[in-house]
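Help wanted!
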Amino acid sequence: METINLLIWSFDALLGLCLLWLAWRTLSAPDLYKAVVLFVAFGLLMTLAWVRLDAPDVALAEAAIGAGLTGALLLSALARLDPAVDDQSIVTQKDNRPKSESVQWAAFMSLILVAIGLGYSVLSLPLKFKGLSPEVTEQLVNSGVENPVTAVLLNFRGYDTLLEMAVLLIALLGVWSTGNKPKYDKPFSSPVLDFLSRLLTPILILVAAYLLWVGAHAPGGAFQAGSILGAVGVLLLLSGWRLQKDSSLLLIRLILLAGPFAFVAMAVITMMIEGQLLQYPPAHAGLLILVLETTATLSIGATLAALFLGGPPHLKNEESP
Amino acid sequence: MTPTLLFALVGIGLFSLGLYALIVHAHLLRKILAINIMGSGVFLILVALAKRTSETTPDPVPHAMVITGIVVAVSATALALSIMLKLNSETGCAELPDDV
Amino acid sequence: MTITDYLSLTLMITGAIFFLAGTLGLLRFPDVYTRLHALTKADNLGLGLIITGLILQLESWTVAGKLILIWLLVLLAGGCVAHLIARGALQRNVRLWKR
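Answered by r_m:
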């Protein structure tokens, strides 16, 4: 058994070293395109680290949102950084480091001090600490679901999730205010891309619905399902799809608002009935959590796809050629 | 050294690397990458410290906080990228003026 | 360890060797097209072997069905994305490597 433990420990050590090395290469790559691609690889290694730390929900969220969607956002922003130049030179976006030597040395010294301080405070924490898991296990039967992370996210700490939906909405409003209307340069048309988006869209919608349903008793949940819907939106946007009808603009706004509005409505209703914010009656807690999760999934998916578009929503025939 | 301690130290290293790159680099896209890596370091410390329970299942409260944190990080990244693109289209370069 | 365990161990190690071969191809091949070729072929086969090794360890058929669905989706996405990257590279006039 000792060799197995040694192998597992050396795998963890190798994973940690690879994370640090990838982070250093990402931050010091002279070419921005290479830096973004290395960042996506870094996100995938973080997913492995979450799996090694017994956090499968976090691993699902990191793989979909942290590695995938953030990488897509960074690449699309990189492509728009210098639209006047042709595509060949996007690959060689370089920049200089105008910071002087003294600033670099001061930053390095303060970095060492910060690392030593943090390391000391982490090493002085107790090795075994129960945290809040006894309370969560005790109250799990009253929460309406069997997955403790879902119970914490949507029942015990539902207030945090309400504020998180508001943060997503505010970020989207910020992007709509500062973004220019994206130009519809000739889309990358390919029959393979059309085939892929047509085949993957219903499959991924089914996967998102499965993740939403199974989040009650296994790793999964609203955020992971919402990020899969966001990925569907990104794939459709990349293959050239835009909104066609005037009524779709109102529909999109309603879908984006549905998540935060459902949370606020639920908070007001539970405050009126039970007297406390987001205190579900234990008999109906499972059903209420499912309703909140469904609206949250639709809202998160639409928000992530709209964040990728980068500008205010518009119809297909309004785009400048 | 347990996995908890190992990954917590890796998280501290990631946070420090990100902080150094945030201070030293001038290009805004590099600053955004540095902020994301700092965030990943903090999440690693949180989840590593959640594994310290005496039974086999870890503490679920930091897991929920980290999931919330990942979603908030992506929305902050999207807003920061949008601001950077606006600055680029107004002034022509994506770097803040240097005053040090 | 039973005979099933040894069989799944062999399959997964062979899958890992295929992944290693694909990564070696990514590092050593001369241009985009040959690298894509090595990567998609070796990675898909390696993933298939690893999933076969995992299926031998399962008790229920529904989980095996989900793993096979994952493999089919990776095949589909990998093949289509490799085609799109190669087409994009051709449109940007990336030259093919000639000996």
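OP: Thanks! One thing I noticed: Chain C has a mean pLDDT of 90.
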